[in-house]
Every structure is written in C-alpha cells, then in structure tokens.
TrEMBL record:
<keyword id="KW-0687">Ribonucleoprotein</keyword>
<dbReference type="InterPro" id="IPR012340">
    <property type="entry name" value="NA-bd_OB-fold"/>
</dbReference>
<protein>
    <recommendedName>
        <fullName>Ribosomal protein S12</fullName>
    </recommendedName>
</protein>
<dbReference type="GO" id="GO:0015935">
    <property type="term" value="C:small ribosomal subunit"/>
</dbReference>
<comment type="similarity">
    <text>Belongs to the universal ribosomal protein uS12 family.</text>
</comment>
<dbReference type="Pfam" id="PF00164">
    <property type="entry name" value="Ribosom_S12_S23"/>
</dbReference>
<dbReference type="GO" id="GO:0003735">
    <property type="term" value="F:structural constituent of ribosome"/>
</dbReference>
<dbReference type="InterPro" id="IPR005679">
    <property type="entry name" value="Ribosomal_uS12_bac"/>
</dbReference>
<dbReference type="GO" id="GO:0006412">
    <property type="term" value="P:translation"/>
</dbReference>
<keyword id="KW-0689">Ribosomal protein</keyword>
<dbReference type="InterPro" id="IPR006032">
    <property type="entry name" value="Ribosomal_uS12"/>
</dbReference>
Amino acid sequence: MSHIVWEFKVGTHCCILARVRAHSGSKGDLSVNFSTITPKKPNSALHKVARVRLTSGFEITAYIPGIGYNSQEHSVVLVRGGRVKDLPGVRYHIVRGTLDAVGVKDRQQGRSSAL
C-alpha cells in the first residue's frame, strides 16, 4: 500500500472519530427549550422534543420518550443516541430517570434507562 493511500485512510478514520466524539452526549447536557413537532406523512401526532446544548458546544434536537414530562428550560439531562424514524432531524433520545429528567409517572414495568 502506498503511503498516500495509507495517509488518506488513516486521516479519514481520525476525522470520523473526532466528529463522533464531538456529538456524543455526556452528563451535564443543558436543555435549552421544549416543543412539539409533527411527524412525516402518513403519521400524525405531537411528539415532544427538546433542544439540548451538549457539553461540547453543539446544539441538538432530542426526543423525550414516555408519557408526560416535567423538565423545564435549563434542566440538566443525559442524552443517548438513537433516532426517531418519523421525526426529521431527531437523532438522539433523552434518558428518563436520570439527572433532572424524572421517570414516567405511575410506570410499574419497563422502568429501564431507555424510558
């Protein structure tokens, strides 16, 4: 393998890793505002989402799973990956039951960190 090809492959890999690390969520992500958005056709609903400022400085849109939420502006939330297929631009989930995001009220089963 020529040195130029090797350099190109290594360089691309490093750039991808840097991009992934920059967007990764961590404890202490600050929620900016909350809103509802409608899904793509043919579905209809009002899904709850939040604009979250990551510790890396990026601002992302994260989905709030479950029924109801009590988070407010400037709440500290934990963000995990995972897109919502019918919501354009939503590629992250807020983890319920951690930090300022409380778990789903009156939920007896399925209380994992995914909700």
